[in-house]
From TrEMBL:
Belongs to the FliN/MopA/SpaO family. This is Flagellar motor switch protein FliN/FliY. GO terms for biological process: bacterial-type flagellum-dependent cell motility; chemotaxis. Residues 14-87 form the Flagellar motor switch protein FliN-like C-terminal domain. It comes from Tropicimonas isoalkanivorans. InterPro entries: FliN-like_C, FliN_T3SS_HrcQb, SpoA-like_sf. Signal peptide: none annotated.
Length: 94
């Protein structure tokens, strides 16, 4: 029987590994000619409205949805996401 006192907790070892979370606010499908014509201050319309939920991905897995918020206090003006839905089984893009 293994000695559990000396066996490292593997879940704890991985808990400190950083992961990149990508927040998707929308998509655009311009033609190449439209992209080539873009200049400074051009506007590229997205398929979502400001109040629509954003999606959070780790790799290609959807992990949550939420609302963009602006932080206040010491982080005033910085964007953040308030989670409104946690995806249990991680929907994939593919």
């Amino acid at each position: 029987m293994p000695d559990t006192a000396s066996t490292p907790d593997r879940s704890n070892a991985f808990s400190q590994v950083p992961v990149e979370v990508i927040v998707s606010v929308g998509h655009a499908r311009p033609r190449i000619s439209e992209l080539l014509g873009l200049e400074r201050n051009a506007v590229l319309p997205l398929d979502r409205r400001v109040e629509d939920p954003v999606e959070l991905f780790v790799g290609d897995r959807l992990i949550a949805r939420g609302q963009l918020i602006e932080q206040s206090g010491a982080r005033e003006g910085q964007l953040a996401v308030r989670l409104t839905e946690i995806i249990e089984n991680g929907e994939s893009l593919t």
